[in-house]
Amino acid sequence: MQELYLEALKKIRDGKSRKFKQSIDLVMNLKNMDMNKAENKIKLEFSLPHPTGKVKIIGFFADNLIPQVKQIENVRMIRRDEVESYRGKKKAMKKLASECYCFLSEAPIMPMVGKIFGQVLAPRGKMPKPIPPTISDPSKLIEINRNTIRVALKKAPVFQLSIGTEEMEDEKIIENIERVVSSFKEALPRGKEQLRNIMLKTTMGTPVTVNLNIKGKK
User: Fold this and answer.
1) What is the pTM of this model?
2) Packing angle of the helix pair 170-187, 2-13 (nearest 10 deg)
3) What's the pLDDT score for residue 40?
4) How many CA atoms lie within 13 A of 169 on its CB side?
């Protein structure tokens, strides 16, 4: 499969250049998936071997860890005394949810966070992950979550994900692709037989099909 990925990457890289750094997206179309059946409402969580190059803001509900968290780049910290100020302000909570890739929260304040933010974060699959307030360095957990992909198939048997940028090396992009594909194969009820096709595209480019016949390929 690596040769097929390389061929597709070459085609999309040869497309029209843009004045900004484009993302490289992986599109997976599935088949024989009745989305009305519970078994097909797949939820996945896995980490990519390489950062995608896209800045991801992490939301962090903090109390004891405020001194450590405020020093970490690309983190939107919400202090414990700020949480209550969001009560009833659904528009502000939606804005915060759209700005942050995912959320973490010190475990002791999770009940308060859930009570106020649950109505907005839960439907978006962004409820905070609890972490112990005694951890000495939260930066490692933040980076792990920054590179974690969360997928929820609900209405349509199709999935699109940014797996890098056009500035990334082919080898790193391919390793990210392989992680995504292998994770899906393991999660699908009938494995690779339910993969209709795989496509790659740049942000503004035309999708390029990697392989229309997945069956029998490794």
Assistant:
1) 0.75
2) 120
3) 81
4) 4
Q: What is the domain-level CATH number for residue 184?
A: 3.30.190.20
Model pLDDT for residues 54-80, shown as the tens digit of each residue: 889 999 999 999 999 999 999 999 999
Out of 108, 127, 146, pick the residue that ends a domain. 146
Q: Quick one: three-class SS letters along 96-146?
A: HHHHCCEEEEEHHHHHHHHHHHHHHHCCCCCCCEEECCCCCCCHHHHHHHH
Q: Residue 98 falls within a domain, yes or no? A: yes
> How many domains does the chain contain in total?
2
Same domain assignment for residues 142 and 156: no
Please report which helix (H) or strand (E) contains residue 27, including its range.
Answer: strand 23-30
193 in the same domain as 141: no
Rounded Cα–Cα distance for residues 70 and 126 (Å)? 21
DSSP for residue 193: G
Burial class of 59 by CB neighbour count within 10 A (0 to 12, 13 to 18, 19+): buried
Pair 175, 46: CB distance under 8 Å:
no
Domain for residue 102, yes or no?
A: yes
**Which of these three, 120, 146, 172, is where a domain ends?**
146
Q: What are 88-99's pLDDT values in tens digits?
A: 999 999 999 999
